[in-house]
From TrEMBL:
It comes from the Bacteria. Residues 244-265 are annotated as: Disordered. Residues 105-226 form the VWFA domain. InterPro entries: VWF_A, vWFA_dom_sf. This is VWFA domain-containing protein. The lineage of its organism: Bacteria, Pseudomonadati, Thermodesulfobacteriota, Desulfuromonadia, Desulfuromonadales.
Amino acid sequence: MAYGVKAKLSSALDAAAIAAAKASSGGEAQARQAADKFFAANFPDGYLGSHPALGEVRVATNRDTGTVSVTVDSSATVPTAFMRVLGMDNIEVAARAQVVRQDLDMAFVVDNTTSLRQGSLGDVTDDVIRSAKAFIDKFNQDTDRVALIKYAYGAEVPVEIKKSGRGFEKNRIRREIERFNFGTNSNPNFTNSCEGFWRAKAQLESISTNRSSIRAIVFFTDGAPNTFSSTFVFDGPWGDGRTRSGSLRSGDNLPDPDNANRESGLWDHTRINSSIGSFHNFSRYVRRLPPYYDPRRTGDSEFRLFYPGSRRATSSAVDYDNINRISRNLLEDMAAAARRSNIYVFTLGLGSRLRDPSGPDSENGEDLLLRMANDRNMLGNKKLAADFRADEVSGLYCHAADESELDACYDRLASAIMRLTM
């Protein structure tokens, strides 16, 4: 009986220690509360006649290494039967568990586009802001490093990742999330997902020394990409062969010359919603699309714009099909490059639009988010199984059908990230 109680005690204590480590960002009180809950769930009082007691829960933070060590003790009293004739009415068994939570660098990317305010779900901006703040609260401001990125026509980094030392300013990130300014139907923002992702990847790679053991990008959106950035050559009265860096957008639907869904640009790729002077809505004067993604004019050729594959973008024509396909190709390429650098990608999609066909190839936006994360659930999907990359790190995708499911999705992503750190 004592051996059985000892095994049960150790198992319950492991669960309690892991739960305490996950909750340690809220301090020792929250860690203790989580440990109590999981210990009680895994070792009910009276098991084999025993009476357990959870002892001290100790949380030790090392700001230099970015690790958090959680130690939990417990004991149980086991009643005896035959040993009472020797004067031993009870046997005391004890156990100890320790969990070390590793260091984490994370870039949190949030869609700030029109549809979040006036899309099929109605105005969900308050829910998006609230759930994003709750997600940030799950991480340790003393040991984790976190950057915040927002995107629409272009992308901005309201809070950069800390380059030296550890930790992040949780209250500052919360304030910046509260300042998110989503577009309206009269002043729409389009979805330059790849620019938001590129900035997230650049934030993590800006730490050249003392990188964390675990690096992750968490990417939130409610739609498929339809905008991309590079450096373009302009002809005509607004160009005369001069170059401009910025964003071109295709719109959400098939092109119609009489409405706003036709291709247009340029917009400032360093801002959420800013046109570039007289070059706004003069995309027809772009001489041709460049071969590479290079809005910062560094000569970088890591990400190509043209592909001969199933999502064909094979010419330099400035048209709806090319712009939309390039926007999707770039995002997937950037996610793959991040994974090859052992950066985990976690994606969260909101709303039914992600499950509706869109773009010139009638693709579901959700499929793109699954491939970005390299989610193992693709293996059970005949259409996506071949796209899973077993030689790259695997993250997680979660779909929230509406705003009521956002918290549950963020909890799933946070739990998956925490598991990586233990």
